[in-house]
Amino acid sequence: MAATTPSQLVFFLFFYLVTCHSHIVNGVGINYGTLGNNLPSPKKVAQLLQSTLFDKIKIYDSNPEILEAFSNTGIDLIVAVENNHVANISSGTSAADQWLAGRVVPFIPATSIVAIAVGNEYLTTDPDHLDPNDLVRAMQNLHDALSARGLDRKIKVTTPHSMAVLASSFPPSASTFATTLIPSMTSIVGFLADTGSPFMINAYPYFAYRDNPGTVSIAYALLGNASGVHDTKGYTYNNMLDAQIDAVRSAIVALGFGNRTVEITVSESGWPSKGDSGDTAATPENAKTYNSRLIERAQSSKGTPMKPKDNIEIFVFALFNENKKTGDATERNFGIFNGDGSKVYDVDLSCEFCSNGGTMGFGEKMTSAVKGPSVWCVAKPHADEKVLQVVLDFCCGPGGVDCREIYENGGCFAPEKLHAHASFAMNAYYQMHGRNYWNCDFKGTGLVTFSDPSYGTCRYSQQ
To answer: What is the pLDDT of residues 104-142, one digit of tens each?
Structure first.
């Protein structure tokens, strides 16, 4: 049998990189609101999240301090156009491009902005004063502006909806959008299908249970009803969230998009740990149960009864209790964390593949990184170690990297951690091949950074 050539070996290694992704745990997103006077700085929030399993955040504006704080962290961001700015952006592509130029462009690629949420529950928040046509036009204008800058494949445009956009949500198979919203929803879903953007829904079984405790089972609302609830078309639902997702799916199909691909993202879902007097559902125990199961659901590759093979991206609501939010007590108590970084209740957020070993807290990180015009390639903080091992073997083998510095007695041997060794090798490969962005992809495990990752006696090469 003929010997394997170097080029064949490269192919086999990268084929393995592709196929080994089948076992990777899905990422989990979280909503980061800032309506509080006791919250930590965005820099400390970024440090906290790097030590958790959350690898995506959604914010409710385009706060430059937050965007700067999350640069070079490997955490993806969804930024937002506030409801009161939608009308302006709907006026034309130039207005949309001006917004992009001021709010997004200065922070990329160091900050990984992957989507823009145009408004929040725009169609149901204030229908007497917000024009639904403005929403559709603003989304299209932003997409056109992104396309003109060559950013439309990296940054998607969408809008989050409340469950109130549905005429009814049960049975899921018979669900449709509210009659008055059908023209707007037809335009929005068509746009999402054309651009490959997700349909975002804010889904809260908590509210359904709180308002109908006599007809909704607490176990069903808390994502754990083993007995199941039956749909008229034969589907069985073991939790309300899946039923809500499929209700949205049915409404999309009812619009005539059954033969188009429109992924569904749960842009908000959570459970409060405290409510007003008499609210027996809002307890720390129920919040822990729901959010623990929600995180487990987000990490799995399970779909829903209607689409069992469709992965559902989920963003937990919320990161912090926000003491300046208006409304009833629950609005201020959806957070997993208090402002001082302590947990409101005990929920496992440990990250197996975090570079700092999963230690959580708001302590400042020590670093020797310095800003400069150079650029480096390192491993993402949440990269799967099995993938990183294959990357390391490739770089130090057929990739042609001189890896003696990460061998024992080498200047970069310590710390003896796979993440550190892979980062050194990935950067060397990246620099060797001209610092093209595709040379730092490594099947999604690489991250381009503008901060020098060198430390102590370990020096990362530059072009």
So the answer is: 999 988 888 999 999 999 999 987 788 999 999 999 999
> Cα–Cα–Cα angle for 128, 180, 310, nearest 5°?
115
- The active-site residue out of 268, 296, 331, 352 is 268
Distance CA(272)–CA(221), nearest Å, equals: 13
In 10 A of CB 119, how many CB atoms?
23
Q: For residue 384, give the nearest of 351, 410, 426 by alpha carbon.
A: 351
Q: What does the alpha-carbon distance between residue 43 and residue 208 come to, in Å, rounded to a whole number?
A: 36
Q: Is 268 a catalytic residue?
A: yes
Measured CA to CA, the distance from residue 227 to residue 104 in angstroms comes to 47
Entry pTM? 0.76
Which of 65, 68, 82, 121 is flagged as catalytic? 121
Residue 322 is among the residues annotated as catalytic for this protein: no
pLDDT at residue 451 is higher than 80: no
Question: How many CB atoms are closer than 10 A to CB 353?
Answer: 22
Helices marked H in 120-239 — which ranges? 122-125, 132-148, 182-195, 205-211, 218-221
Burial class (CB in 10 A: 0-12, 13-18, 19+), 74: buried
Q: Residue 245 pLDDT > 90, yes or no?
A: yes
Closest Cα partner for 301 from 311, 291, 288?
311
In sequence order, which ranges of 54-108 are alpha helices (DSSP H)? 64-69, 83-89, 93-103
Of the candidates 32, 141, 134, the one whose C-alpha atom is nearest the C-alpha of residue 84 is 134
Helix (H, G, I), strand (E, B) or coil at 224: coil
CA distance 215 to 213: 6
Residue-wise pLDDT tens digits, 167-207: 988 899 999 999 999 999 999 999 999 999 999 999 999 99
Query: Which residues have CB under 8 Å from 114's CB, separation 6+?
Result: 56, 76, 77, 78, 154, 155, 156
Residue matched to tokens 């969804």: 78
295-331 confidence digits (pLDDT tens) = 999 998 789 999 999 989 999 999 999 999 999 999 9
Count of other CB atoms within 10 angstroms of residue 350: 12
Tokens 């381009």 identify what position?
A: 448
Interior CA angle at 152 toward 71 and 16, to 5°?
Answer: 70
CA distance 283 to 248: 28
Residue closest to 41 by CA, chosen among 343, 450, 360, 340: 340
Q: What is the DSSP letter of 257?
A: I
- What pLDDT score was predicted for residue 27? 77
